[in-house]
Specification:
The chain has a single domain, classed as Roll (Thiol Ester Dehydrase, Chain A), CATH 3.10.129.10. Helix content is 29%, strand content 36%. It is built from 4 helices and 6 strands, in the order ααββαββαββ. The protein is elongated and about 50 Å long.
Length: 145
């Protein structure tokens, strides 16, 4: 099962919004939100809440790709998020997530018995390439037990 399929199966909101997991690797994750009238705002673009969910889902995909091998000993959890809406989003929007710290550094903290926190940066773009939103989600790997 791919990371996108796993997220769609386990995160009902990802299914509700019909998110499309285009790429999910430890260096980059890309997720698209189709243009769907039932999730539009008052100006005909994707609702802010749908864009937030898109960005958070892209961050979750990269976290699973980068740290999936740690799931037997730690649970990834989002602990905070900030989003800025930069331009009007219309049509399909795509979120691209990148890790803000090297994965090896995060795992080294976990190995040292700490609960690491790390940022994931997300850019949300519309089809013409314009950045419509910028988001940072802060994640932790909470050790089991």
């Amino acid at each position: 099962m791919s990371i996108g399929e796993m997220l769609a199966a386990t995160v009902p909101m990802a299914r509700t919004l019909n998110l499309e997991f285009i790429e999910a690797g430890p260096e980059r994750a890309v997720v698209a939100l189709p243009d769907q009238g039932e999730f539009h705002n008052h100006v005909g673009g994707p609702h802010a809440g749908a864009m937030f969910t898109l960005g958070e889902s892209a961050s979750g995909a990269i976290v699973l790709a980068a740290f999936g091998d740690q799931l037997s000993r730690a649970v990834p959890l989002a602990v905070g998020a900030e989003i800025a809406y930069r331009k009007l989003a219309m049509g399909v929007v795509t979120a691209t997530a990148t890790l803000g710290r090297p994965a090896a550094e995060v795992v080294a903290q976990l190995d040292a018995g700490e609960r690491p926190e790390f940022p994931v940066a997300i850019e949300i773009r519309r089809a013409d390439g314009a950045v419509t939103g910028e988001m940072t989600v802060t994640w932790t790997l909470r050790p089991n037990g």
